[in-house]
Design a protein that fits this description.
The complex is a heterotrimer of chains A (278), B (290) and C (336). Chain A is α/β, with parallel strands linked by helices. Chain A is built from eleven helices and ten strands. In chain A, strand 7, helix 7 and strand 8 form a beta-alpha-beta unit. In chain B, helix 2 packs across helix 9 and helix 6 crosses helix 8. By secondary structure, chain C is an all-alpha fold. Chain C is globular and about 55 Å long. Chain C starts with 7 loop residues before the first helix and ends in a 17-residue tail after the last helix. Classes of the chains: A alpha/beta (278), B mainly alpha (290), C mainly alpha (336). Chains A and C meet through helix 2, helix 3, helix 4, helix 5 and helix 6 of A and helix 7, helix 8 and helix 9 of C.
């Protein structure tokens, strides 16, 4: 198989003998008569940082919505740790280990930073309704542990001092970071980041790159990200998938992708691509 | 024979509901607002008719005054209360609509009293007989006027530039704005058309049920809204279909001797349709953007 | 994590003392013959309107849905309570408590029956479908005269609702909802209001929490209904029409969606207002309606916003025990 064959599984060497954390087989969805995504195949290894790129409107966020079961796929299958996710909804998919951030930030704006993370830790706490009404000891214990954990997670991005701020009052970049922390709180095995660097300046993006690597190393999880900032994508992704018009057009290492004529054409248009090659 | 009479009866009631349902549906289609006060516009139309007739206006003038009155009221409502809330959460807008409904009802009670007031709109009397069935003129006129209004509305929406703009705004407000459509005036226009139809509906309604009370619009409006939901809110043919369906339902429930359960039956239909097919009979299901 | 000056146990003790003192004070005043009958009635009425408003605030304010059929749940509770008491199954306080609990539970069951299908829908549709259910319950009561007395009404209901009974219910209702809201369950409810899709992607079963909020809300509406029956001694179906639902909604909205203190103050003000503006009675509803519109346009968070009140916080301020001079809105406090 050539590196450009979309079906090639591209795994970092350390993960090559492990079950992929996520695998999509010929995933596709139609809206009405329109095919938004078709024949989408990728494999993400347990500790891989992978990138999903493509021009605007190529269907990247739609794929995230498919992976998190916000949309039901029309065709194909998706596996999490080798388990078919066919019968799962968004809630079950998260519990099975997939967490995400959103392109248009979806924080709980009226709640504090800490509470946002605590919502992420919801399923880590297990006291029931009666315990909360009667304030049984398990309530206090559970809440105390969760708060400690939340602050610990916030400290990854150095946000522990903003814990009591309203999430909606945070600056834009911090809101994106908080979304990552909140997603991490659900204890995922794969984290989907939808344009994590959008709206960030150069130094913030560099810091984010460091942090994404740090998260992968700390939690030993896979990260799949959509991003337009090519420095970030080429800088940290080990495998990259490129889509256009809802179809996978290339897959490979950053180096393969940078030199792939199909990708260049998709990004720059046919004429420009040709002009370039003259 | 009885069946034919009941059939015409249901058609008459259905056309009234359909006319009112159109107002709900158009407004909902364009700004996703459940205009709770739409039913009360009809109540106001009733009082306008009483006063216009008492003042000695020619019935045709009175009818025109009712339609103009309803339209003006809807425009004022839209400009004063709904425009400032264009970007507010849906729940705030809905509460405002409830507030306006409450305000209109209580103002009417203050000015005209809670006592039911008889209203007599001069309408051609008499009937025509087809075989053994005699059909009263008001029934025929009601159905005819309703059908004509709907044809006219359909022409406005499908055949004119204004209608095209309305459809564009309801499809995607932002894109319509970027295309140079004055969204605010289109919304106002939609309210005005809906209210004009409600004005016509008011006349037809009070011909059949000649009593006006401050709360007459509440239940009527609610049923018309249910008709709009049943047909598929936002859809003009849907509103017509839903209106006739509710008309038939009521007539059937009454005919089998369960008149006390009429309102219950209408609500039951609403509940069932929302559970089985929330998009309504002819509506398209909506996909939420994430 | 307790970043405020007073330790949690002390805070609980202060609140408990104040509650007991309030109940005792109210009991003495209402039983001591110091008030006129009308004033006494208003105090009782304020009580069940507090329960109604605080319980409606749970779905409307915290969950962000707008049920318009609260009067329907109240009606279920009222008739269940009344029938329970009339049947005389239990006697004394057992009967009072039994009737209230039965009213609450049956009402909560209705809440679940209605909630499960209704909550598949959002926003306006949910409002309309709950309105429809509320009206259906009324039609049902009207058309089952052998059980409910029909349009003539149900009479000779034992008048169990005295100050003590009503206000203990008020306190239980406020405490239970407060405790739920300041827990992981409450955070899930608030999260759904802020962003449902994000909440789902946190692995939180949103349907469960919506139905739960509906059921708890219906439970207390049912209790309030039973208290209402026990106050009047007679029930007619038209007491529970759409206007009643709107009245309760008005209290919640004017007080501030999502503020328990707002609901309480709203209930006190709007219920006792007629007493002070008898000359203006014909304008009352017009003023309310105008207020509703103006509040939505100019201060959609309601007159109290999301400010929540805690005696502990007040004492801290008064006593100068505050460690931080400025703290962010009370609703976000993580200790109580």
């Amino acid at each position: 198989m050539t590196p450009n064959d979309p079906r090639t599984a591209l795994l970092p060497e350390r993960d090559i003998h492990k079950t992929p954390v996520m695998e999509c087989r010929a995933l596709g969805i139609d809206f009405g008569g329109l095919t938004a995504v078709d024949d989408f195949n990728i494999t993400v290894a347990p500790t891989e940082i992978a990138g999903l790129i493509g021009p605007n409107g190529a269907g990247k966020t739609t794929i995230f919505n498919l992976l998190t079961k916000v949309y039901k796929p029309t065709r194909g299958a998706m596996f999490l740790n080798g388990k078919n996710t066919k019968k799962m909804n968004t809630i079950k998919a998260n519990q099975a280990g997939i967490a995400r951030t959103f392109q248009n930030i979806r924080l709980f704006k009226e709640m504090t930073v800490l509470e946002n993370v605590l919502v992420g830790l919801h399923n880590e706490m297990n006291y029931n309704l009666l315990s909360s009404v009667l304030r049984f000891p398990e309530y206090w214990r559970s809440e105390r542990i969760a708060k400690g954990r939340a602050l610990e997670l916030l400290s990854i991005f150095n946000m522990q001092d903003d814990a009591s701020m309203k999430a909606g009052a945070l600056p834009y970049g911090s809101q994106r970071r908080l979304e990552i922390v909140r997603a991490l709180a659900t204890n995922p095995c794969i984290l989907l980041l939808d344009e994590p660097a959008a709206g960030m300046n150069h130094s913030e993006t560099d810091e984010l790159m460091e942090n994404i690597r740090k998260i992968r190393d700390m939690f030993q999880i896979a990260i799949l990200l959509i991003e337009h900032d090519m420095n970030l994508v080429m800088g940290i992704c080990e495998g990259i998938a490129v889509i256009n018009y809802g179809k996978l057009i290339a897959k490979g290492t950053p180096k393969d992708i940078q030199n792939n004529p199909v990708v260049i054409e998709a990004y720059l248009g046919k004429e420009l691509g040709n002009a370039d090659s003259h | 024979m009885l069946y034919v009479a009941q059939f015409i009866n249901a058609l008459q009631l259905g056309s009234i509901y359909a006319l009112i349902a159109l107002g709900y549906s158009m407004v909902y289609g364009i700004i996703k607002l459940l205009n709770f006060a739409h039913g009360d516009v009809i109540m106001v139309g009733g009082y306008v008719a009483i006063f216009a007739l008492a003042a000695g206006f020619h019935p045709v003038v009175a009818v025109i005054l009712v339609i103009l009155g309803c339209t003006a009221l809807a425009i004022i409502m839209e400009k004063l209360a709904y425009t400032p809330l264009r970007t507010a959460p849906r729940i705030s807008v809905l509460i405002t609509a409830i507030g306006i409904s409450l305000l209109l009802q209580n103002l009417a009670q203050l000015f005209f009293g809670a006592r039911p007031q008889p209203i007599h709109i001069p309408f051609p009397t008499g009937s025509i007989s087809i075989g053994a069935v005699s059909i009263a003129y008001p029934m025929i006129i009601t159905i005819g006027v309703a059908v004509l209004s709907m044809v006219a509305l359909n022409y406005i929406v499908q055949g004119t530039k204004l209608g095209k703009a309305m459809r564009a705004v309801s499809e995607d407000t932002q894109a319509a704005q970027l295309m140079g459509i004055n969204v605010n005036s289109i919304i106002t226009f939609t309210f005005a058309v809906g209210a004009a139809l409600a004005g016509i509906g008011a006349i037809l309604f009070f011909v059949r049920f000649p009593v006006v009370t401050p709360t007459v619009g509440a239940m009527l409006g609610l049923k018309a809204f249910i008709a709009a939901v049943l047909g598929g809110i936002g859809s003009i043919p849907g509103a017509m279909l839903g209106g006739f369906a509710i008309g038939f339902l009521e007539v059937i429930v009454n005919a089998v001797g369960l008149s006390r359960w009429t309102d219950g039956a209408v609500f039951l239909v609403l509940i069932i349709i929302l559970l089985v097919r929330p998009a309504g009979l002819v509506g398209k299901p909506m996909i939420e953007k994430v | 994590m307790n970043r405020l000056g007073i330790k949690t146990p002390a805070r609980y003790a202060i609140n408990a003392t104040l509650i007991i003192a309030f109940i005792y004070w109210g009991y003495v005043i209402t039983q001591g013959g110091m008030l006129t009958r009308a004033q006494n009635n208003i105090i009782i009425q304020v009580g069940f309107f507090i329960i109604l408003a605080v319980s409606l605030n749970l779905p409307a304010g915290y969950l962000g849905q707008l049920p318009l059929g609260h009067a329907g749940f109240m009606a279920v509770g009222a008739y269940i309570g009344a029938l329970f008491w009339r049947s005389g199954i239990l006697s004394g306080y057992g009967s009072v408590v039994g009737g209230l609990i039965a009213a609450g539970i049956v009402s909560a069951i209705f809440g679940i029956i209605i909630g499960v299908p209704a909550l598949r829908l959002r926003g306006d549709y949910l409002a309309i479908i709950t309105l429809g259910f509320g009206e259906m319950i009324r039609v049902l009561i009207m058309n089952l005269p052998s059980i409910t007395g029909g349009a003539q009404g149900l009479q000779q209901i034992p008048r169990h609702s005295n100050f003590l009974v009503v206000y203990i219910c008020v306190i239980v209702c406020c405490l239970v909802i407060h405790m739920i809201m300041k827990s992981r369950h409450g955070r899930a409810i608030l999260a759904i209001r802020d962003n449902e899709i994000a909440t789902e992607s946190m692995g939180i079963n949103t349907t469960y929490y919506k139905v739960m909020a509906f059921a708890v809300s219906a439970f207390f509406a049912g209790v309030a209904g039973a208290l209402y029956a026990g106050t009047l001694g007679i029930l007619v179906p038209s007491d529970f029409n759409f206007m009643m639902s709107i009245n309760i909604l008005m209290i919640v909205v004017l007080g501030g969606l999502g503020s328990m203190m707002g609901s309480i103050i709203g209930a006190i003000v709007l219920t006792s207002l007629p007493l002070f503006m008898q000359g203006l009675n014909q304008y009352r509803l017009i003023i309310y309606a105008l207020l509703l519109i103006l509040v939505m346009i100019f201060k959609p968070s309601g007159l109290m916003g999301t400010y929540d009140f805690s005696m502990g916080h007040v004492l801290e301020k008064v006593g100068g025990w505050t460690m931080r001079s400025k703290k962010e809105g009370g609703a976000s406090d993580d200790s109580e």
